[in-house]
Amino acid sequence: MPYIADLEKAGIPTVLVDFEDQESMVKQEALVNGMPHVRYVHASRTIPGPADVDRILKDIIDGLVRPLTPDEKKAGEYYPPQPRVIFEGTYDEAHEFFSRTQYVPRPLYAPVSVYTDGLPIVLPTEERVAAMLKGTSHRPEEMITYQSDRVVGFGGEVKKRDLVRFQPLKRTATVEKVATIAVMSGCRPEYLPVVLAIAESGCPTGTTVYNNQWMCASGPIVKEIGMNAGCGMLGPGNPANSTIGRAYQLMAVNLGGAVPGINRMSSIGSPVNRGGMCFAEYEEGLPPGWKGLNEEHGYNKTDSVVMVMGTEGGMDGAQFSPGGYRALQKSGHGGIARRLGVKGQPGPHNFLDYVLPGVWAGGREGARTFIMVHEMARHLYELGFKSKDEVYEYIWKKGLEPLSEYRKRSWVDLTTNGWMGKEPISGKPWKDLPDDYMVSVAGARPNQNCIIVCGSDEEVCVQMTGGPRGGWGAFSPVYSVDAWR
Amino acid sequence: MAEDKKYKFLNPVGTYMPVKTFPLAPRLDRLDGKEIWISITGEPDFTIPLERRLKMDYPNVNWKVKKTYWFVQDPLTDEEMKTADGLIQGICW
């Protein structure tokens, strides 16, 4: 939309073709980009293209030639009132106020909470917010800005001290607003630096498909605030994990203005986002020489960081039959040993050979974040993988397949720009490559994949679609917690 | 706490920076002889017949095309903007 607004400002009339269910989003985007009356026509999601063109061609042309209405000729300013105190009253009255919903018509036909994730909140009195602010040295009125130069979504570059704009409405926030939301989420003051670091991400909510927003803390902060890096760390129960994860979602709602069906268009949503998901890396479980997330991203071992991920795709896992994994590694018994052809041979064996063939089944191409228990990481180390990078290289090579197969996938039409672009490894045009050219489905580079070691004991490895070092958005999604202490 | 005690509750909603709003560009008085860009962003099932029909039904327009599969447009250059009379964008916003 910024592009369309720029064209209109330059005197070039435009018409957009979108989908009907995206009308509210288009209107909002048009407004926050200063062009509230942009003309658009709805294409159909179901009518075949030629018939759909027949249906709306005249409307498209009409958008270019129909004279402007008086409203379309108006200039002005959009700057709604924004009081610091949003409500005064008793707790019961405030509970009612913060429980308000708005009805969202197509494509929801259901109410959505205005200020919350649908669950009750801790009411943000001035006193509670003041207590929360003791968790940081930053002043309440300080604006949330980037604490370092970085690349953000879709290759955009920002500089240290640039204002963070929360998507989709491009709003801004002060430290006090983030503290207000930390209160609402149930956070304790000592969690606030993590929440502020997460705020630096702008808390995007993804596109129309299946976006999961999740976070992983790394470094001393994990123990300082009692995060769960062990059994059940992705699930409920730990106050820090749960409330910090929730804070992301409440920031998306309140700072970004994200509303399902209006501008948060993830088609069926994701359960990862319902309660918010934050967990922690188990530093002690890293095999010798394996870097934690902080060191992998240029920080020191003693630095506290949080990785903020918005991954388009699902979560799948390898859960072995009770004892099956252990039988493989202890004595080469069981089905996995038979599959790997190591029956009767004591381990360590490479469980990745068992897991990986199914990881990139249709529709699942791209880098992965592997969340694995420390014992499984240790087995990889004992097999000779002396660094995470060596594992990434192995995974990436396992993902190689002939171009003739690669062409049959879905996302590749997009990531190759309709095969008009160049293949990144060879530098040659995609269209010039032979059918037997080998392409990895495991990301453009090995280290786009990621391993997070957790501290539980039952042998499980979970794969999250996407990795933190590349992919579509070229994100650099690791934020310093220490910068916000 | 007394149930009837009143408190002030802080506003969690993000702050809008002032947004200047602008009028739309004047529309075209005719199509013939105009240079109009078709800015294609994916959805080939729709955009391929759209391009074909525009060129067939409006042959006196100087149609030009920018094409990407990406959902971020391939923008007009400054030079191209100097002579562009209009633009149709689809399918995205």
- Category by helix and strand content of chain A: alpha+beta
Placed side by side, the strands forming the largest sheet of chain B appear as: 4-3-5
The coarse overall form of chain B would be: elongated
Helix proportion range of chain B? 10-25%
Oligomer: heterodimer
The string of secondary-structure elements of chain B, in order, is: EEEHEHE
How large, in whole angstroms, is the Cα Rg of chain B?
23 Å
The fraction of residues assigned to DSSP E strands of chain A is 15-25%
For the CA atoms, what is the radius of gyration of chain A?
A: 25 Å
- Low-pLDDT runs of 5+ residues of chain A are none
- Mind describing the biggest β-sheet of chain B? 3 strands, parallel
Produce a short descriptive summary.
Chain A is α+β, with helices and mostly antiparallel strands. Chain A has helices at residues 2-9, 23-32, 49-65, 91-98, 126-132, 175-185, 192-199, 221-224, 239-256, 272-275, 293-296, 324-331, 335-340, 352-359, 374-382, 388-398, 403-406, 412-415; strands at residues 14-19, 40-43, 76-78, 85-89, 101-104, 110-113, 150-151, 157-158, 211-218, 277-280, 305-312, 315-319, 368-373, 400-402, 438-440, 450-454, 460-465, 478-480. Chain B has helices at residues 44-57, 78-83; strands at residues 7-10, 19-21, 35-41, 62-68, 86-90.
What does this protein look like?
The complex is a heterodimer of chains A (485) and B (93). Helix content of chain A is 31%, strand content 17%. Chain A has 485 residues and is α+β, with helices and mostly antiparallel strands. In chain A, the strands form six sheets. A four-stranded mixed β-sheet of chain A has the order 10-9-11-18. In chain A, strands 12-17-13-16 form a four-stranded mixed β-sheet. A two-stranded parallel ribbon of chain A has the order 1-2. In chain A, strand 7 and strand 8 (157-158) form a beta hairpin. In chain A, helix 5 (126-132) crosses helix 6 (175-185), helix 6 (175-185) crosses helix 7 (192-199) and helix 6 (175-185) crosses helix 9 (239-256). The longest helix of chain A has 18 residues, at 239-256. The radius of gyration of chain A is 25 Å and the shape is globular. In chain A, 45% of the residues are buried. Chain B contains two helices and five strands. Chain B has helices spanning 44-57, 78-83; strands at 7-10, 19-21, 35-41, 62-68, 86-90. A three-stranded parallel β-sheet of chain B has the order 4-3-5, covered by helices on one side. In chain B, strand 3, helix 1 and strand 4 (62-68) form a beta-alpha-beta unit. The N and C termini of chain B lie far apart (51 Å). Chains A and B meet through helix 1, strand 1, helix 2, helix 3 and strand 3 of A and strand 1, strand 2, helix 1 and strand 5 of B. Strand 4 of chain A pairs antiparallel with strand 1 (7-10) of chain B.
